[in-house]
Amino acid sequence: MPTHTTIEVPNFGKVEVPVGLFIDNEWVESSDKKTFSTVNPATGKPFVDFAHATKEDVDTAVKSSRKAFKSTWGNNVPATERAALLFKFADLMERDSAKLGALESLNSGKGVRIARDFDVGDSVAALRYFAGLADKTHGQTLNHFGNEKFVYTLHQPIGVCGQIIPWNYPLMMWAWKVGPALAAGCTVVMKPSELTPMTALVMCDLAKEAGFPAGVINTLPGLGATTGDAISRHMDIDKVAFTGSVITGRRISIAAAESNLKKVTLELGGKSPSLIFDTANVEEAAAWVAMGVWFNSGQDCTASSRVYVQEGIYDKFIAALKVNAEKCAIGQPSDETTSFGPLISQTQRDKVLAYIDSGREEGARVVTGGKKWDKSDGGFWVEPTILAETNIKMKVVQEEIFGPVIVASKFSTEEEAIDLANNTVYGLAASIFTNDARQQTRVSTAIDAGTIWCNQYGILHPSVPFGGYKHSGIGRELGTYGLEAYQQVKAVHQNLTQTM
């Protein structure tokens, strides 16, 4: 199989893209020559075949990354040099933002404007943030032992890191993981989702152009059960970072523990609540919540998928939310005006529709949506959907749908709202809409979630840590916490006067 192929990209023309494995700064076939197929979510038709990395390919990539870590990267390179390469990497991404956005849109179904301006733009910002942070990390001096000894700590890179990223934000999740890992001095063995591997592979050519040494970034497309499992179990990978489902996160934790007890960072699912109190601006709250649940067609771990509204404004809020649902710019990914594209696959679409049916059967009222988009024409769209009058026992309230479905119900008191918000196995994010500043502080403290938005939703920044409570994950990404996740702390004791 060739390592590159030419595809037709809407509004962009013919583009040559990589479909092989990127190991040691070279494009190669998989060791057994096997491939796997992807599908265009907007048409339901076959898209591109990619090389499927085997366990042997994973081993080759790990050896390449280990060699780089011990010679041309890691503690052997000044942090300012790593920073300079990351800044150049970000510049190249920005230069190619139109191409990257078009490819991301085509592969994932996002509106091309969203993919270019937000996904690519935020990825560039993440690389630049971590480039700037690369030489800002430091340890401590512990000089309170009198004249006996002097102790200091070193923050050193963990080593070779396996990174497994999801399909909902293929490029952004790549940047969230590659940026801090390289800034810290780690080397990377990356496995993109088997549904959306293309942009992670395209980034390899830019990494080579930027001047990263061979082995610093190796990228292996493949299935989770084979390539992903081999990464999780490899005895010479020091850490694995994963974003995806709770089920897969558990498997990765088990594999990491059963192999070499490698470090693990997990960013998993969510069922994030939005609490709308009666002092809130209803129109503004409805607009924020709408963006939170219908951005990326609801395929977002932090989606504002549970809404609890104080009873006095419930009907008014649901009416305002319905207006926002019906204003969603649903359309073809190649259209500049589209902000709501198809779901990633037929399986995902059918799963979402089954959840909607279960909500109906259990007594929820469909306010709007609830079915396939009438212009789907083979693609995998589901209309923006509101299920009202839900209750805590319903499947649609308890389980993550990962689609454009919001479930809504009433509450009467602040205490009841907090209990409803926390009645979930997840704890990734939440939002509070109130004009009572004291209430904002009380409720923010009481909700079990890693991110709380007050009078807004969904806005993230590379400098702000992100991660979850409970089943929503282990560890944090972004910010200084995200860099620390790729470092080990070493304590050094220097004897000054002590004798044995």
Automatic annotation (TrEMBL):
<dbReference type="InterPro" id="IPR016163">
    <property type="entry name" value="Ald_DH_C"/>
</dbReference>
<comment type="similarity">
    <text>Belongs to the aldehyde dehydrogenase family.</text>
</comment>
<protein>
    <recommendedName>
        <fullName>Aldehyde dehydrogenase domain-containing protein</fullName>
    </recommendedName>
</protein>
<feature type="active site">
    <location>
        <position position="267"/>
    </location>
</feature>
<dbReference type="InterPro" id="IPR016162">
    <property type="entry name" value="Ald_DH_N"/>
</dbReference>
<dbReference type="Pfam" id="PF00171">
    <property type="entry name" value="Aldedh"/>
</dbReference>
<keyword id="KW-0560">Oxidoreductase</keyword>
<dbReference type="InterPro" id="IPR029510">
    <property type="entry name" value="Ald_DH_CS_GLU"/>
</dbReference>
<dbReference type="InterPro" id="IPR016161">
    <property type="entry name" value="Ald_DH/histidinol_DH"/>
</dbReference>
<feature type="domain" description="Aldehyde dehydrogenase">
    <location>
        <begin position="27"/>
        <end position="492"/>
    </location>
</feature>
<dbReference type="GO" id="GO:0016620">
    <property type="term" value="F:oxidoreductase activity, acting on the aldehyde or oxo group of donors, NAD or NADP as acceptor"/>
</dbReference>
<dbReference type="InterPro" id="IPR015590">
    <property type="entry name" value="Aldehyde_DH_dom"/>
</dbReference>
